[in-house]
Amino acid sequence: MNRFVLAALLLSAPALAAPPVAPAPVSAKARAIHESALIIDTHVDTPLRMLEEGFDLGSQPPNGQGHLDLSRARAGNLGAAFFSIWVEPKEFAGQYTHRALRLIDTVLNAVEKYPDQMVLALSSKDIVAARAGKQKKLATLLGVEGGHAIQNDLGVLRDFYRLGVRYMTLTWSNTNEWADSSGDITDAAVKHHDGLTDFGRDVVREMNRLGMLVDISHVSDKTFFDTLKVTRAPVIASHSSARALTDHPRNMTDEMLKAVAANGGVVMVNYFSAFIDDTYRQSYAAMAPERNAALEALTAKHQGADAATKFRVEGAASWEWAAKVRRPPLESLIDHIDHIAKVAGVDHVGMGSDFDGINSTPQSIDSVADLPRITEALLARGYTREQLHKFLGGNLLRVFREAERVSRELRTAPSARR
Protein backbone atom coordinates (compact mmCIF):
# COMPACT_ATOMS: atom_id res chain seq x y z
CA MET A 1 0.00 0.00 0.00
CA ASN A 2 1.09 3.53 -0.73
CA ARG A 3 1.66 5.01 2.72
CA PHE A 4 0.34 8.37 1.52
CA VAL A 5 -2.97 6.79 0.56
CA LEU A 6 -3.35 5.26 4.01
CA ALA A 7 -2.42 8.56 5.64
CA ALA A 8 -5.11 10.33 3.62
CA LEU A 9 -7.67 7.77 4.72
CA LEU A 10 -6.73 8.27 8.35
CA LEU A 11 -6.80 12.03 8.11
CA SER A 12 -10.18 12.08 6.39
CA ALA A 13 -11.86 10.00 9.07
CA PRO A 14 -13.76 11.94 11.71
CA ALA A 15 -12.52 11.85 15.29
CA LEU A 16 -13.57 8.57 16.83
CA ALA A 17 -15.14 8.19 20.23
CA ALA A 18 -12.71 7.73 23.08
CA PRO A 19 -11.44 4.15 23.15
CA PRO A 20 -13.13 1.91 25.69
CA VAL A 21 -11.40 1.15 28.95
CA ALA A 22 -9.17 -1.91 28.68
CA PRO A 23 -11.09 -5.00 29.82
CA ALA A 24 -10.14 -6.65 33.08
CA PRO A 25 -8.01 -9.81 33.00
CA VAL A 26 -9.90 -13.04 32.47
CA SER A 27 -10.63 -14.79 35.76
CA ALA A 28 -8.83 -17.98 36.67
CA LYS A 29 -12.14 -19.90 36.70
CA ALA A 30 -13.14 -18.77 33.22
CA ARG A 31 -9.68 -19.41 31.81
CA ALA A 32 -9.63 -22.92 33.26
CA ILE A 33 -12.99 -23.70 31.64
CA HIS A 34 -11.83 -22.20 28.36
CA GLU A 35 -8.55 -24.10 28.33
CA SER A 36 -10.35 -27.38 29.03
CA ALA A 37 -12.76 -26.96 26.10
CA LEU A 38 -12.37 -28.11 22.51
CA ILE A 39 -13.01 -24.81 20.76
CA ILE A 40 -14.27 -24.88 17.18
CA ASP A 41 -14.80 -21.84 14.94
CA THR A 42 -16.81 -22.74 11.84
CA HIS A 43 -15.96 -19.70 9.76
CA VAL A 44 -12.69 -17.81 9.27
CA ASP A 45 -11.96 -15.92 6.04
CA THR A 46 -8.18 -15.93 6.40
CA PRO A 47 -7.56 -17.86 3.11
CA LEU A 48 -8.29 -14.72 1.09
CA ARG A 49 -5.58 -12.85 2.98
CA MET A 50 -3.25 -15.76 2.42
CA LEU A 51 -3.88 -15.86 -1.32
CA GLU A 52 -4.18 -12.17 -2.18
CA GLU A 53 -1.80 -10.63 0.31
CA GLY A 54 0.63 -13.49 0.72
CA PHE A 55 -0.13 -13.56 4.45
CA ASP A 56 1.77 -16.26 6.34
CA LEU A 57 -0.23 -17.87 9.16
CA GLY A 58 2.98 -18.52 11.06
CA SER A 59 4.10 -14.90 11.04
CA GLN A 60 3.49 -12.21 13.61
CA PRO A 61 1.47 -9.57 11.76
CA PRO A 62 2.60 -5.98 12.38
CA ASN A 63 0.46 -3.89 14.72
CA GLY A 64 -1.84 -6.81 15.38
CA GLN A 65 -3.34 -6.70 11.89
CA GLY A 66 -6.02 -9.21 11.05
CA HIS A 67 -7.82 -11.55 13.40
CA LEU A 68 -6.11 -14.91 13.05
CA ASP A 69 -2.59 -16.32 13.01
CA LEU A 70 -1.12 -19.41 14.63
CA SER A 71 0.34 -17.57 17.61
CA ARG A 72 -2.93 -15.89 18.55
CA ALA A 73 -4.84 -19.11 17.86
CA ARG A 74 -2.74 -20.77 20.56
CA ALA A 75 -3.31 -17.84 22.91
CA GLY A 76 -7.07 -18.21 22.44
CA ASN A 77 -6.93 -22.03 22.67
CA LEU A 78 -8.59 -22.39 19.28
CA GLY A 79 -8.79 -26.10 18.61
CA ALA A 80 -10.31 -26.27 15.13
CA ALA A 81 -11.22 -23.82 12.40
CA PHE A 82 -13.10 -24.13 9.15
CA PHE A 83 -11.20 -22.01 6.63
CA SER A 84 -13.65 -20.37 4.25
CA ILE A 85 -13.26 -20.97 0.53
CA TRP A 86 -15.11 -17.93 -0.82
CA VAL A 87 -15.20 -16.93 -4.50
CA GLU A 88 -16.28 -13.40 -5.40
CA PRO A 89 -19.13 -14.08 -7.86
CA LYS A 90 -18.75 -11.10 -10.21
CA GLU A 91 -14.98 -10.87 -10.52
CA PHE A 92 -14.55 -14.61 -11.11
CA ALA A 93 -17.64 -15.34 -13.20
CA GLY A 94 -17.05 -18.51 -15.20
CA GLN A 95 -13.98 -19.37 -13.09
CA TYR A 96 -15.58 -20.22 -9.76
CA THR A 97 -14.18 -23.72 -9.42
CA HIS A 98 -10.68 -22.72 -10.45
CA ARG A 99 -10.65 -19.86 -7.95
CA ALA A 100 -11.91 -22.17 -5.19
CA LEU A 101 -9.12 -24.64 -5.99
CA ARG A 102 -6.52 -21.88 -5.64
CA LEU A 103 -7.86 -21.00 -2.19
CA ILE A 104 -7.92 -24.65 -1.14
CA ASP A 105 -4.34 -24.99 -2.33
CA THR A 106 -3.34 -22.00 -0.20
CA VAL A 107 -4.72 -23.59 2.95
CA LEU A 108 -3.23 -27.00 2.20
CA ASN A 109 0.15 -25.38 1.60
CA ALA A 110 -0.02 -23.78 5.05
CA VAL A 111 -0.77 -27.17 6.60
CA GLU A 112 2.29 -28.61 4.82
CA LYS A 113 4.45 -25.67 5.93
CA TYR A 114 3.51 -25.95 9.61
CA PRO A 115 3.05 -29.69 10.29
CA ASP A 116 4.01 -29.19 13.92
CA GLN A 117 1.16 -26.70 14.43
CA MET A 118 -1.56 -27.60 11.90
CA VAL A 119 -3.18 -30.77 10.63
CA LEU A 120 -5.82 -31.26 7.95
CA ALA A 121 -8.92 -32.67 9.66
CA LEU A 122 -11.24 -34.79 7.52
CA SER A 123 -13.52 -36.12 10.24
CA SER A 124 -14.82 -35.48 13.74
CA LYS A 125 -12.26 -37.99 15.01
CA ASP A 126 -9.48 -35.98 13.35
CA ILE A 127 -10.56 -32.86 15.25
CA VAL A 128 -10.35 -34.66 18.57
CA ALA A 129 -7.04 -36.34 17.67
CA ALA A 130 -5.46 -33.01 16.70
CA ARG A 131 -5.89 -31.74 20.26
CA ALA A 132 -4.59 -34.92 21.93
CA GLY A 133 -1.19 -34.95 23.56
CA LYS A 134 1.06 -32.01 24.34
CA GLN A 135 1.35 -30.59 20.84
CA LYS A 136 -2.31 -29.62 20.39
CA LYS A 137 -2.29 -28.85 16.68
CA LEU A 138 -4.88 -26.63 15.03
CA ALA A 139 -7.38 -28.93 13.33
CA THR A 140 -7.73 -27.32 9.91
CA LEU A 141 -10.94 -27.84 7.97
CA LEU A 142 -12.33 -26.41 4.74
CA GLY A 143 -15.76 -24.93 4.07
CA VAL A 144 -16.89 -23.68 0.66
CA GLU A 145 -18.86 -20.45 1.08
CA GLY A 146 -21.34 -20.31 -1.77
CA GLY A 147 -22.73 -23.11 -3.93
CA HIS A 148 -21.85 -21.22 -7.12
CA ALA A 149 -18.33 -22.63 -6.63
CA ILE A 150 -19.41 -26.07 -7.89
CA GLN A 151 -20.66 -24.55 -11.17
CA ASN A 152 -23.76 -26.77 -11.19
CA ASP A 153 -21.73 -29.97 -11.19
CA LEU A 154 -22.16 -32.68 -8.55
CA GLY A 155 -18.83 -34.13 -9.68
CA VAL A 156 -17.12 -30.93 -8.56
CA LEU A 157 -18.96 -31.18 -5.23
CA ARG A 158 -17.55 -34.68 -4.80
CA ASP A 159 -14.06 -33.50 -5.78
CA PHE A 160 -14.25 -30.73 -3.17
CA TYR A 161 -15.11 -33.36 -0.60
CA ARG A 162 -12.12 -35.48 -1.68
CA LEU A 163 -9.87 -32.42 -1.20
CA GLY A 164 -11.09 -31.97 2.36
CA VAL A 165 -14.16 -29.71 2.14
CA ARG A 166 -16.49 -30.62 4.99
CA TYR A 167 -19.24 -28.08 4.60
CA MET A 168 -20.72 -25.95 1.85
CA THR A 169 -22.85 -22.85 2.32
CA LEU A 170 -25.63 -23.34 -0.21
CA THR A 171 -25.44 -19.70 -1.29
CA TRP A 172 -23.34 -16.67 -0.52
CA SER A 173 -25.00 -13.24 -0.83
CA ASN A 174 -25.74 -14.07 -4.47
CA THR A 175 -28.56 -16.28 -5.70
CA ASN A 176 -27.10 -19.07 -7.83
CA GLU A 177 -28.78 -21.26 -10.45
CA TRP A 178 -30.35 -23.55 -7.87
CA ALA A 179 -30.86 -21.70 -4.57
CA ASP A 180 -32.05 -18.25 -3.49
CA SER A 181 -29.91 -16.06 -1.27
CA SER A 182 -30.96 -13.61 1.43
CA GLY A 183 -28.48 -11.13 -0.03
CA ASP A 184 -30.43 -10.30 -3.18
CA ILE A 185 -33.90 -11.68 -2.46
CA THR A 186 -35.48 -8.22 -2.86
CA ASP A 187 -33.64 -7.47 -6.11
CA ALA A 188 -36.17 -7.73 -8.95
CA ALA A 189 -33.35 -7.90 -11.50
CA VAL A 190 -32.20 -11.27 -10.10
CA LYS A 191 -33.85 -14.47 -11.26
CA HIS A 192 -35.13 -16.28 -8.17
CA HIS A 193 -36.41 -19.84 -7.75
CA ASP A 194 -38.76 -19.64 -4.77
CA GLY A 195 -36.18 -21.45 -2.65
CA LEU A 196 -34.42 -24.59 -3.86
CA THR A 197 -34.73 -25.99 -7.39
CA ASP A 198 -34.84 -29.74 -8.07
CA PHE A 199 -31.10 -29.64 -8.70
CA GLY A 200 -30.64 -27.78 -5.41
CA ARG A 201 -32.41 -30.62 -3.65
CA ASP A 202 -30.03 -33.05 -5.36
CA VAL A 203 -27.11 -31.01 -4.04
CA VAL A 204 -28.40 -31.32 -0.48
CA ARG A 205 -28.97 -35.07 -0.90
CA GLU A 206 -25.48 -35.58 -2.27
CA MET A 207 -23.96 -33.57 0.59
CA ASN A 208 -25.82 -35.85 3.01
CA ARG A 209 -24.46 -38.90 1.23
CA LEU A 210 -20.91 -37.58 1.27
CA GLY A 211 -21.03 -36.51 4.91
CA MET A 212 -20.57 -32.84 4.01
CA LEU A 213 -22.33 -30.50 6.41
CA VAL A 214 -25.15 -28.49 4.84
CA ASP A 215 -24.66 -24.81 5.74
CA ILE A 216 -27.70 -22.52 5.57
CA SER A 217 -26.03 -19.20 6.45
CA HIS A 218 -26.72 -16.62 3.71
CA VAL A 219 -29.71 -18.46 2.19
CA SER A 220 -33.18 -16.93 1.83
CA ASP A 221 -35.82 -17.93 4.35
CA LYS A 222 -37.61 -20.06 1.74
CA THR A 223 -34.36 -21.84 0.80
CA PHE A 224 -33.80 -22.52 4.49
CA PHE A 225 -37.16 -24.23 4.97
CA ASP A 226 -36.86 -26.10 1.66
CA THR A 227 -33.50 -27.45 2.81
CA LEU A 228 -34.90 -28.74 6.09
CA LYS A 229 -37.53 -30.69 4.15
CA VAL A 230 -34.84 -32.47 2.12
CA THR A 231 -31.89 -33.05 4.42
CA ARG A 232 -31.44 -36.32 6.29
CA ALA A 233 -28.65 -34.87 8.44
CA PRO A 234 -28.58 -31.92 10.84
CA VAL A 235 -27.74 -28.58 9.24
CA ILE A 236 -25.44 -25.84 10.45
CA ALA A 237 -25.55 -22.08 10.14
CA SER A 238 -21.79 -21.53 10.02
CA HIS A 239 -21.90 -17.79 10.79
CA SER A 240 -25.33 -16.33 11.55
CA SER A 241 -26.91 -14.54 14.51
CA ALA A 242 -30.43 -13.81 15.81
CA ARG A 243 -32.80 -11.61 13.77
CA ALA A 244 -34.99 -10.91 16.81
CA LEU A 245 -32.10 -8.88 18.25
CA THR A 246 -30.55 -7.45 15.07
CA ASP A 247 -32.90 -7.08 12.13
CA HIS A 248 -30.66 -8.21 9.30
CA PRO A 249 -31.71 -10.80 6.67
CA ARG A 250 -28.43 -12.65 7.26
CA ASN A 251 -29.66 -13.44 10.77
CA MET A 252 -32.16 -16.13 11.70
CA THR A 253 -35.70 -15.64 12.96
CA ASP A 254 -36.88 -17.37 16.11
CA GLU A 255 -38.97 -19.67 13.91
CA MET A 256 -35.82 -20.66 12.04
CA LEU A 257 -33.90 -21.17 15.29
CA LYS A 258 -36.59 -23.54 16.53
CA ALA A 259 -36.56 -25.38 13.19
CA VAL A 260 -32.79 -25.89 13.43
CA ALA A 261 -33.26 -27.29 16.93
CA ALA A 262 -35.96 -29.69 15.68
CA ASN A 263 -33.57 -30.77 12.93
CA GLY A 264 -30.81 -31.38 15.49
CA GLY A 265 -28.55 -28.74 13.95
CA VAL A 266 -26.54 -25.87 15.34
CA VAL A 267 -26.37 -22.10 14.79
CA MET A 268 -22.87 -20.64 14.98
CA VAL A 269 -22.99 -17.00 16.08
CA ASN A 270 -21.33 -14.40 13.84
CA TYR A 271 -19.20 -11.67 15.52
CA PHE A 272 -19.72 -8.89 12.94
CA SER A 273 -20.86 -5.70 14.68
CA ALA A 274 -23.65 -5.07 12.14
CA PHE A 275 -25.08 -8.55 12.74
CA ILE A 276 -25.09 -8.36 16.55
CA ASP A 277 -26.00 -4.75 17.34
CA ASP A 278 -28.93 -2.91 15.74
CA THR A 279 -27.56 0.54 16.57
CA TYR A 280 -24.32 -0.27 14.78
CA ARG A 281 -26.24 -1.87 11.89
CA GLN A 282 -28.35 1.21 11.29
CA SER A 283 -25.42 3.63 11.53
CA TYR A 284 -23.27 1.51 9.25
CA ALA A 285 -26.09 1.17 6.71
CA ALA A 286 -26.69 4.95 6.72
CA MET A 287 -23.12 5.48 5.50
CA ALA A 288 -23.48 2.99 2.64
CA PRO A 289 -23.90 5.44 -0.27
CA GLU A 290 -20.90 7.54 0.74
CA ARG A 291 -18.84 4.51 1.74
CA ASN A 292 -19.53 2.58 -1.46
CA ALA A 293 -18.72 5.58 -3.64
CA ALA A 294 -15.42 6.12 -1.83
CA LEU A 295 -14.46 2.46 -2.07
CA GLU A 296 -15.36 2.29 -5.77
CA ALA A 297 -13.23 5.38 -6.43
CA LEU A 298 -10.35 3.82 -4.53
CA THR A 299 -10.65 0.60 -6.53
CA ALA A 300 -10.63 2.56 -9.80
CA LYS A 301 -7.59 4.52 -8.69
CA HIS A 302 -5.61 1.32 -8.04
CA GLN A 303 -6.96 -0.69 -10.94
CA GLY A 304 -3.49 -1.23 -12.39
CA ALA A 305 -1.85 -2.15 -9.09
CA ASP A 306 -0.83 -5.68 -8.17
CA ALA A 307 -3.31 -7.88 -6.33
CA ALA A 308 -1.59 -7.59 -2.93
CA THR A 309 -1.52 -3.79 -3.06
CA LYS A 310 -5.17 -3.56 -4.08
CA PHE A 311 -6.14 -5.99 -1.34
CA ARG A 312 -4.32 -3.98 1.34
CA VAL A 313 -5.57 -0.60 0.16
CA GLU A 314 -9.19 -1.68 -0.10
CA GLY A 315 -9.01 -3.57 3.19
CA ALA A 316 -7.56 -0.60 5.04
CA ALA A 317 -10.26 1.68 3.64
CA SER A 318 -13.00 -0.77 4.64
CA TRP A 319 -11.71 -0.90 8.22
CA GLU A 320 -11.49 2.90 8.39
CA TRP A 321 -15.10 3.29 7.33
CA ALA A 322 -16.24 0.67 9.83
CA ALA A 323 -14.36 2.48 12.60
CA LYS A 324 -16.45 5.61 12.07
CA VAL A 325 -19.17 3.83 14.06
CA ARG A 326 -18.43 2.99 17.67
CA ARG A 327 -18.02 -0.74 18.19
CA PRO A 328 -20.78 -2.39 20.20
CA PRO A 329 -20.03 -3.78 23.65
CA LEU A 330 -19.15 -7.44 24.11
CA GLU A 331 -22.56 -7.86 25.73
CA SER A 332 -24.18 -7.48 22.29
CA LEU A 333 -22.48 -10.67 21.12
CA ILE A 334 -23.28 -12.46 24.37
CA ASP A 335 -26.94 -11.43 24.00
CA HIS A 336 -27.13 -13.32 20.69
CA ILE A 337 -25.57 -16.48 22.10
CA ASP A 338 -27.89 -16.24 25.10
CA HIS A 339 -30.96 -15.65 22.91
CA ILE A 340 -30.26 -18.61 20.63
CA ALA A 341 -29.58 -20.83 23.65
CA LYS A 342 -32.93 -19.82 25.15
CA VAL A 343 -34.95 -20.16 21.91
CA ALA A 344 -33.28 -23.20 20.30
CA GLY A 345 -31.72 -24.74 23.40
CA VAL A 346 -28.20 -25.03 24.75
CA ASP A 347 -27.49 -27.93 22.39
CA HIS A 348 -27.94 -25.78 19.29
CA VAL A 349 -25.58 -22.81 19.54
CA GLY A 350 -21.90 -22.42 18.69
CA MET A 351 -19.25 -20.03 17.39
CA GLY A 352 -18.70 -18.89 13.79
CA SER A 353 -16.70 -15.69 14.13
CA ASP A 354 -16.26 -14.63 10.48
CA PHE A 355 -12.76 -13.51 11.52
CA ASP A 356 -10.74 -11.88 8.73
CA GLY A 357 -13.95 -11.51 6.72
CA ILE A 358 -15.39 -8.66 8.79
CA ASN A 359 -14.16 -5.14 9.54
CA SER A 360 -15.70 -4.60 12.97
CA THR A 361 -16.02 -6.79 16.05
CA PRO A 362 -17.43 -6.08 19.52
CA GLN A 363 -15.26 -4.30 22.03
CA SER A 364 -12.50 -6.40 23.62
CA ILE A 365 -12.69 -9.03 20.82
CA ASP A 366 -9.84 -7.92 18.59
CA SER A 367 -8.59 -11.33 17.51
CA VAL A 368 -8.82 -15.03 18.17
CA ALA A 369 -6.60 -14.47 21.22
CA ASP A 370 -9.56 -12.79 22.96
CA LEU A 371 -11.85 -15.84 22.88
CA PRO A 372 -11.49 -16.42 26.66
CA ARG A 373 -13.39 -13.15 27.21
CA ILE A 374 -16.44 -14.71 25.57
CA THR A 375 -16.22 -17.68 27.93
CA GLU A 376 -15.98 -15.36 30.94
CA ALA A 377 -18.95 -13.26 29.82
CA LEU A 378 -21.08 -16.38 29.34
CA LEU A 379 -19.98 -17.70 32.72
CA ALA A 380 -21.19 -14.44 34.24
CA ARG A 381 -24.61 -15.10 32.65
CA GLY A 382 -24.87 -18.27 34.71
CA TYR A 383 -23.93 -20.94 32.15
CA THR A 384 -22.23 -24.03 33.52
CA ARG A 385 -18.92 -25.58 32.51
CA GLU A 386 -20.77 -28.34 30.64
CA GLN A 387 -22.92 -25.84 28.75
CA LEU A 388 -19.94 -23.68 27.85
CA HIS A 389 -18.13 -26.70 26.46
CA LYS A 390 -21.13 -27.31 24.23
CA PHE A 391 -21.18 -23.70 22.99
CA LEU A 392 -17.44 -23.59 22.35
CA GLY A 393 -17.31 -26.70 20.18
CA GLY A 394 -19.20 -29.65 21.58
CA ASN A 395 -22.43 -28.94 19.74
CA LEU A 396 -20.69 -28.66 16.37
CA LEU A 397 -18.78 -31.87 17.03
CA ARG A 398 -22.07 -33.66 17.81
CA VAL A 399 -23.62 -32.45 14.54
CA PHE A 400 -20.54 -33.46 12.56
CA ARG A 401 -20.69 -36.95 14.05
CA GLU A 402 -24.36 -37.28 13.16
CA ALA A 403 -23.70 -36.13 9.58
CA GLU A 404 -21.01 -38.82 9.35
CA ARG A 405 -23.46 -41.43 10.70
CA VAL A 406 -26.08 -40.45 8.12
CA SER A 407 -23.44 -40.62 5.39
CA ARG A 408 -22.46 -44.17 6.37
CA GLU A 409 -26.11 -45.19 6.33
CA LEU A 410 -26.75 -43.63 2.91
CA ARG A 411 -23.57 -45.00 1.36
CA THR A 412 -24.44 -48.55 2.37
CA ALA A 413 -28.11 -48.37 1.37
CA PRO A 414 -29.07 -50.56 -1.62
CA SER A 415 -30.16 -47.48 -3.56
CA ALA A 416 -26.90 -45.59 -2.84
CA ARG A 417 -25.75 -43.58 -5.81
CA ARG A 418 -22.23 -43.16 -7.03
UniProtKB/TrEMBL annotation:
* Record has Chloroplast as a keyword: no
Q: Which InterPro entries match?
A: Dipep_AS (IPR000180), Metal_Hydrolase (IPR032466), Pept_M19 (IPR008257)
Q: Is the Membrane keyword given for this protein?
A: no
Q: What are the entry keywords?
A: Signal
Leader peptide range in chain numbering: 1-17
Pfam families, A to Z = Peptidase_M19 (PF01244)
A single GO BP: proteolysis
One annotated GO molecular function is:
metallodipeptidase activity
Q: Which domain of life is it from?
A: Bacteria
Name by which UniProt lists this protein:
M19 family peptidase
